[in-house]
Amino acid sequence: xxxxxxxxxxxxxxxxxxxxxxxxxxxxxxxxxxxxxxxxxxxxxxxxxxxxxxxxxxxxxxxxxxxxxxxxxxxxxxxxxxxxxxxxxxxxxxxxxxxxxxxxxxxxxxxxxxxxxxxxxxxxxxxxxxxxxxxxxxxxxxxxxxxxxxxxxxxxxxxxxxxxxxxxxxxxxxxxxxxxxxxxxxxxxxxxxxxxxxxxxxxxxxxxxxxxxxxxxxxxxxxxxxxxxxxxxxxxxxxxxxxxxxxxxxxxxxxxxxxxxxxxxxxxxxxxxxxxxxxxxxxxxxx
Length: 287
Fold this sequence. Notes:
Blueprint: H1 2-26, H2 35-40, E1 42-48, E2 51-57, E3 66-70, H3 81-94, E4 97-101, H4 111-125, E5 134-139, H5 141-155, E6 163-167, H6 180-184, H7 192-203, E7 226-231, H8 237-249, E8 254-259, H9 266-269, H10 273-286
Parallel strand pairs: 3-4, 3-5, 5-6, 6-7, 7-8
Antiparallel strand pairs: 1-2, 2-4
């Protein structure tokens, strides 16, 4: 009897796992705007390559600045409640509008699908908004995407946004930096091996050598006005140091704002005084 119950439990767990995997590969996962934000702001939803692009604008006291924001989530997850609350704070503090591309997610899609959306989307965007009125921003995987996009645009001699702001960016999905192991014991949010799996699915069959997947190795010569917020308790922090070293060797200025004891995207979660301090620093950087 016990053996039969055990077999039933194992069977249910296997079916559950198969269902999750099937959902990830087949479902068209998309972000949804919370009802409270729909009531608070003017929101436009447009389509690009069959994905939503949300434009969130203040109803009053808005200016002509736009933040193009790429959310994190290991390239696998949609916007979280913390993301929406974070963007709400930024809009309130700056009066800027936010353009949020809901880019394709892995494992159903890979980096090629993402860049087939975001590169032409940006080129269309600067036909109606002056690049000097655009700030590119992203957290975690979204930070890696934002950096890779700017490298790609610079390589194609496309006019870049006025600023690039990266929050705990994931810029090397190989997770091969040996310093990561020294930081992982302090990181309460990320797991190196889990990220490596997500990185493999995002890169597809041929992307692991592409700077679009690992922008730590990309062409950084055209980058300008780059600011990176990073915490010493984040396993992605060591790769920021490598990027900083590369930039210095090429005499490119990247402003690294490092916070001692801060974890991964602590600035988004806004759970403590360190996060509130970082948010105010971020607002000053945006303005």
